[in-house]
Design goal:
The structure holds 2 protein chains of 2 kinds. Chain A is an alpha/beta fold. Helix content of chain A is 34%, strand content 21%. Chain B contains 7 helices and 17 strands. Chain B has helices at 31-34, 74-80, 116-128, 148-154, 177-187, 199-211, 250-255, and strands at residues 9-20, 23-29, 41-46, 50-57, 64-70, 87-94, 106-112, 132-139, 160-166, 173-174, 192-196, 216-219, 235-236, 239-240, 247-249, 262-264, 270-272. The chains are: A alpha/beta, B alpha/beta. Bound molecules: flavin mononucleotide and FE2/S2 (inorganic) cluster.
Amino acid sequence: MKRSTKDILAVNLAGISLDNPLILASGFLGISQEIFTRLYHEFEVGAIVSKSISLNPMEGYRGPTVVPLENFNFLNAVGLSNPGSDSFSNEIKNNDVPLLVSLVGSQENEFPKLIKKFDKLCILGYEVNLSCPHVAKMGMEVGDDIELVYRIIKRIKSVTTKPVIIKIGIGNTNIVKIAEIAQDAGANAITAINTIRAMKIDIKTERPILSNKFGGLSGKAIKPIGIRSVYEISKNLNIPVVGCGGIFSWEDVIEYMLAGSSAVQIGSSIGYLGMSVFKEIKKGIMDYIKKKDLKNIMEIIGNAHKY
Amino acid sequence: MHTNIDTHRIVSICEDTLETPNVKTLIFQDNLSFKAKPGQFLMVWIPGVEELPMSVMVSNTNDNAAITVKKYGIGSTALFQKKKGDVIGIRGPYGNYFRVSKKQKKVILIGGGTGLVPLMRLSVILNKMQISCTLIIGARSKPEILFYNFAKKILQNTKHKIIVTTEDGSFGIKGYPTDALIKILEHDKFDMAYTCGPELMMKKVYDISISYDLSLQASLERYMKCGVGICASCCINDKLVCTDGTVFNNKELKMMTDFGLIYRNKSGIKSHY
Ligand SMILES: Cc1cc2nc3c(=O)[nH]c(=O)nc-3n(C[C@H](O)[C@H](O)[C@H](O)COP(=O)(O)O)c2cc1C
Ligand code: FES
């Protein structure tokens, strides 16, 4: 029997059905509805996560904010620049593509206000960014505080029925510990990992290149850390995990899924390979599935745990 | 030699030329930018200050490249103040570029301010291919006219005409470059028009190109954070100026309903010109 691409690649993530497991990571092209539409229709992404949106607009840091590094990596300290919740909810008011809104805040009480701006819109759910490594009082500084993490998630879950994915990263607290806290508080899934706090100094001028000095490392270098994180989290938790970090090829996606990812997020490779990376990876996965004679890609999730 | 266009190359400025009281050309050695095509840009790091997109200018000598900067905000003012011996960081060249085909016999170029930079790089090619060329240079006033003598020199081997417009009438034709364009199109035809400059000027050029059925390529300038297609700070509708552009043709411009109307500010909020 011939199976359609749709059946073979479709995945289920915390009650959300996706055409395929390839999701646009937060912070990449994440502010424009017209680009979301193009990514979905022209490049066939499974879903899109918006830029992390705060209650009020943020301008972000002065340039350079994005530094391409050797070996297909990026260092960034954009400073969570984003249009804010009013402007962004207006941007996506007619959305009809699979979209998750990424939320960021520094205090517990900001999150119900954020949810209020988006809950009536046509979106799949939320991703909560508790792991940006370069903005004071936001992201990772929240993510490292397990009591605050617990309270924020409880609070969010009490005001929305939509799925809530918690995005965590490599900070000072053990990633499995934060993931467990998130699960206990009612999170529907975990995304791991975010960028990792890092730095680049130019040896001729002897200066850090980023205006913020420190930033987050993404790209090929962080993939093994992402794989390890997904493996450990999925081994210890019952909720699904979305792998993220350094995905450039279909092989990378398969590796993440074997480690226990139900879906994956892709970011930095767009900067090196263009938006078409989604279609190319999708094709590679299709060929893999055919060769392996699988009914659906979900069959391989967590297979590496057998050993 | 550096072969990776993406990582910063630290270059030392070997020559600086004041073009007008507010515009300066900086020349530095860099083989990758020397080979840039017209309309491509560099991301220029002014150490400790900012990173800005800059269209690649013509340099006279092999392996050298140049940028031309107009004093405006904090970043461009700091870049303007750079002189011989100072260092800057560059990455790129990025983006697509103006297309020229042998079929084109006669073209027209419309530039305003530092938008003339990619048109100079284009002129070098037009000169080599001996394509007949009309160049309109737009400026506010006489002291702000850019590249008038330079253009004469780089177009010397091809049939050419250079027209200058100033808003205050202190030199050439009084008015905007688009006023001159309309006058010329009343009695003349061209195989292609190329434009770069303030977006509102380019929008006008686009409108004119529609009414006169003129093929057009426009090199757009937008606020850019990454230059490599990941941040969307440069987006117009569903296009990214840094990777889908900088150059767009009539067909693409037609679909860009925000062109000449709406841009995104630093937070990414849509704002009106
Ligand atoms: C320029 C840039 C901006 C980012 N912005 C966000 C953001 O707003 N929220 C977030 O949760 N992650 C953000 N990230 C992290 C990515 O979503 C992703 O977790 C990380 O880049 C690792 O994946 P990759 O190696 O595929 O890029 C950003 C990353 C980059 C490079
Ligand atoms: S400048 Fe970042 S996408 Fe164009």
